[in-house]
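Co-fold these.
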Amino acid sequence: MQQNFYKTRRVSRSLQFLAGLLRPLLLTLGIMGAGLGALAQSDAKKTVTGTVVSANGDDGIPGASVVVKGTSNGTTTNAAGEFSIEAASGNTLVVSFIGYATQEISVGNKTKIDIRLQESIAALDEVVVVGYGEMKKTDVSSSQVTVSGKDLSKTINTSLEQGLQGRAANVMVQQNSGQPGAAPSVLIRGISSLTGTTQPLYVIDGVQIKPDNMKDDPNNRPTGFSNILSSINPDDIETINVLQGPSATAIYGAVGANGVVMITTKRGKAGEAKITFNSLLTMQSEPKHIDVMNLREYAQFRNEAAAVGSTATEPQFADPSVLGEGTNWQSALFRPTTLQKYSVGLSGGTEKSTYYLSGEYFNQKGIVEGSGFKRYNGRLNLENQTRNWLKIGANMSVGITEEKVNTNNGGIIQLALDQNPSVPVTNPDGSWGGPVSTQFQFTNPVMISKIYNDYNRRTSILGSLFADVKLMKNLTWHTEVNGSAEFLKYYSFHPSYTIGGYVVSQDAATSVRSVNTNNWWSLHSRLSYDLKLGKHDVNIMAGHEAQAFTYESLTASRKKFITNTIEELSGGDASVISNVSNNSGKGSGSRESYFARVNYSFMERYIVQGTYRMDGSSAFRQGRRWGNFPAVSVAWRVSEEPFLKSVNAINDLKLRFEIGRSGNQGSGGNAIYSTLQTVPTGWGTGFLASNFANEFLTWEKDDVINAGLDLHMFGNRVELIMDAYIKNITSLITVNSYPFTYGGDIAYSPGYLSWPAVNAGSMKNRGVGLTLNTVNIDKGGFYWRTGINLSFDRNKVTSLLNPITPIWNATSVGFKTEVGQPASMLTGYIAEGLYQDANDIKNHAIQTSNGELTINPLTGSWVGDTKFKDLNGDGVIDAEDRTVIGNPWPKFTLGFNNNITYKNFELNAFMTGSFKNDILNYPRYRAEVPGNGGVFGNQWKSVANYARPSSYAVGDAETVMLTNPGHVIPRIAPGDPNGNNRMSTNFIEDGSYVRLKNITLSYNFPKSLLKETFVRGLKASVGAQNLFTITKYKGYDPEIGMVSYGGTVMAGIDTGRYPSVRMYSFGLTADF
Amino acid sequence: MQFNIKLLAIISALTLMQGCKEKFLDRPPLDALTSGNFYRTDAEIMAGTAPLYNIVWFDFNDKANMSFQEARAGNLNSNDRTSYVKHAVPSTDVNTLLPGYKSFYKIIAQSNNAYKAIKEATGSTASAAVKSQGLGECRFMRATAYYYLVSNWGAVPIVYDNVAQLNSPPVRNRIEDVWKLLIQDYRFAAENLPSTADQGRLTKYSAEGMLARMYLMRAGLNQNGTRKQSDLDSAKFYAEDVITKSGRTLAPTYGELFESANNNSSKNNPESLFSLQWMPVSSPWGVNNSFQAYFAYDANITTTGDGWGAAQGLSADLVKYFVENPADSLRRKSIAMFDSDVYPNIQKAAGGLKYNRPAQLSAIKKYIVGSPADNGGLGGFMAANINSYMLRLAEVYLIYADAVLGNAATTNDAKALEYYNMVRKRAGMPAKTSLTFEDIFKERRIETVFEGNSWNEMVRWYYFNPAKAIAYTAAQHRESYTMTYVPGSTNPKKYNVTYSPAEYYPLSANTLYLPFPEGELVNAPSLKDEPVPFDFSKLVD
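Predicted complex below.
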């Protein structure tokens, strides 16, 4: 009953809205009709032909638009750039093409007109994509950035998000892993959620995708590192519009808070069919090695460790000088390898119908065997003007990817650093080498990379159908159905093996098979009405959308494989119940939305836009599920004012101001329900609560104020875009860490309850983005263009229930989110050097856990142990002395692009940089507390400088000295009674870097050379990606990225990631 | 134009029809029950408390139990639990200390949770008896967790309503209040649990047995040299009730208690009053018993990819006891493997396991059951098919004797002697005619060693006589050693034991309690504050 009432009320509200919309519409129809006739010309028509070419080449520009000014008479150029049009001598032709400055040419008595278009950095009359529609660029009053598909193709990208790196201000893209196919993290205007995803919403031709943050949870290892975006061919992208301002994102209401990335794929153009072929061959080289000990050095270390009682003496190491280098595990593991990509595109069409068809094959092998990424992709985009009042279209992309993940991100690479050089890769007889026993020792990483068989297959389909119905002049009804389907299959087989004394028995051999499907659909309809009344321009749009997703999963595994030749479950042992495991899962979510937008401009000078969206989400209980998201923006095109019209230097100056609200529904999951997990018991299946529920959960609110300006100067040769924003995030949906005393946990542990998601906390993000695009030289065919963008983003937590303080993987690695600081700060102790003598220990706070001054090499502190700062001065070093020791967020980031063309050559150099961010170097921490990773593991070369006390005898407590003062690495301390393995400032490093991301030199073969062939255009290019990186960071790669751990964001912690590598590439692009 | 207006009307109507019912936005989980619609029938209540017998205890049983209870009590020689052997436990220990602490509070949280859910279930059709039983189980489990907490950390926070307390910092409550609460809980359990139940489930006598243990321990709390008679009387009362009325009996032999066939979640031992009910599977992780994985000295014993106990074994102190008391050989062989011992039930296919390990440690035998093949195909990686005793009848016999002895120097009470000697007799040990505190204390140590109560016994002694407890631990040998069987020696077998230089780690006031884990202090610095009295009026019913 209540529900019916609710619905009725909503219907009547909608009807009122519609009536209001119709009134002005009907009133103005007559006026519109009258206006059109007045524009007719009376001159005699003639046929004008010509070619449109690019100013810096002979290439014809296909698809350029040629219109007789002031009329609807127009055409587009064919594949060779040629056109033919009826025009009178008094007419003016307007020739335009995206990326080029529009030219106007009077026809006069000419019948053949060749036009050279200048490349432009900002064509003002471009139409840009906005949420649920498109808009003239000059009318845009919100902050948004367009990145062209051409820019994306200048770097080598496995997935499209990677191509965004450094391309737009306030869009921070970080590669989380060098694992081929791994999804990067994309952060628009700083971190806006603590426990939900921080990735933006992607809208690919209407299909909405909001990826999760990549997980780095050893208890819950990702089965893959890629997401559905990796199944899209970046070559298919025409433009990317990054919506940042609140007025632009508010139309996406509940999911727009992290920013929106709108992706438009290529469409066919009327004219002759065009065939494009691309090929790319890339050599990937090994990363720079980390200096670890060779066999002699390691043997020496082992002897010294044995001497202080940390391990038994090893006869084989008795005389290190007779030993060789031993195994260099990094050399053994890394290999140079290839990346190949081939794609074909076919596009064309008639005035009524256009098509775009493409196919791609992509194959990136990893620099570690057992990692790699392959993709097969096909796309078909169709559009048809069925009637003069009806236009329909469809697009569909099918991608199949295969991701090889034996490496499990850092797992195998960390093993290569851990395994000691006395273990051979292979034995003289060709069999795999291994250590003398299983306990405390490491397996053979090279073997693992080859004998494991872990891979994922994804088939994904993205598609949409739309219809545009022109109900009346200027009134269009648009409806579309979008859908995505993702089928994921995970395979894992870990065989049994025996290498030396290291045994993984048949009982432990495991096969896992898993199938997951994710489906999403949306249905939306909108009415849009354009009205031009003298100097008034109005555009009104209103619509409704419903969407839902479902997921299902099925997982099974078996253990105990008698033979490693059968990897399927049938080869495993089903007779023992504990060898068999299977499970399934299922769930769904939905959202319903109403939205409207009014854009009004007066004299093309004053622009006001209002946006409103109402969203209802299944993530919340009835009564709390509807959220309202309004926004308003204003813009003033100062350059259109008479006082600036005469200033020739300024082509365009627009001041913008906007304010609005977006929302976030958190994980969208079951936080409002307390679910029960099943537990096998002696009396049958038992049920146990698995989370604390919060039925009062509701929307997170992001209120943003944005001010910006767009300035074009000197014949559009200089473009400056500036934006400043303040984003207030309140009712933050957080999963707080509470004391364990209350029984919950942040990550799985047996029988745990996960903490509740609550609306608690707030954050404030502030930032400035600067983009400066300039044409520096345009003379005699020499053309030099630069683009710089600088981003300053600051995040501060302004309120929070409890500090969020996860500890990564039960180590000493911790990070903390607390009020007054940015999220996810690195924590640890402040190291103050080493104990020099007994007095030093006595005068220092007590570091042993029993709280008593203990000067003892086995049970207490000793000379050569690390001193930590007693922050609270209570005379004891304990958890309260742990503090923030690093900030993982950069002070600013940079993208810097240089493009030089001369005749047929083009040189493109693209740099990215990150400045003043801290990195916690966990691999170095493991290495530089001697014995931290066990003495059977190899040590870094730097460890040779560990502290050497003159004695290890309790009796010498008063006289023991350091024999090698001046270093920071502590002594070898059996059992570590002093707690040298506390995380400390010793392991925080400056993560600033500048990287030459890509440099490419290409050559366009002149038409004259190709004349006698069927090839119409040919471009060859050579390039290098990640050619050099300037950094002080001591790990493999300073680009650490941002992952999700324990349900919260973890940034700047290098857990031993798969490094990004240098790539040398050769590419060919041919048009037929 | 009229046509278009009609079209407009049609399309507007179509657009409006896309509006959804509110139900479109109701999406409860499809793959899990929710607590709001559970705990309403007898079967649901029993299924809702069953997991309190295994998964919530995993982190305690996995590593903490042997470290907290046995390593510290001087029973274990171990290469990777040295900080516990030496009473130098770092608060930063995240492998054992933190999971152990978390485990007890998980037990408390899940017990509180299930208790509340059973009480507040709407539309319940469950019988009063089963409701009581379920509630009794929750309170019993909570009390047991507090027993371990108070013994290991002393003053700890009392959590009685997790949701209500979540937003305030936890404060520690006085030791005596923790004791008061847990005894109150056990008494509730004794009143609400049935006299008989499904095999393996708690009964009234499980709670009474625990009450006997609790009263005996609390009798010494805050006392000086003597114990409180009223608590001793209660201990005696409950012990006697269990002995005479529970229907439990001693297993005929000591050894069979620790065989899989006689002690698993499908078939509990008649001597057991409370056992953790492990499953021979490990999915979800935590229903499995990982004891054997860590303590079997060789991977060939388990054949499940574990068996990492090559450097784990009996402490020098226990070895000395068994070498000096060859008469205690029945228990010895079931507790420890000595060089040349043969175990026919392990590696059955090969004719039995021979512990042929000269010049090595004595490995642990208790709870080592061998491979799945040795145990009817049941078991798996870190999942031996055997329950963990939390309380068995033999101990109640010894508690009775201790309670009767009370503050006297010796006793020759007939019943006390009878029960005490029943335990001795099964072990093949000569009967005693008079008992001292030390006699009973040591008997209880050997009888229940590695069953996870040894450290609490130290604390029990320390409560009323710290000097003696310290002296006792100060004499315990904790150095390393190797042993070799002297070939040909029989009745008794002889061993050459070579001890490293003696090491002693006496208990002290500072090491009596474990440090609070750093990972918890970060979240709850309030744990450093002085303990406060608990306001018992906050407890509803």
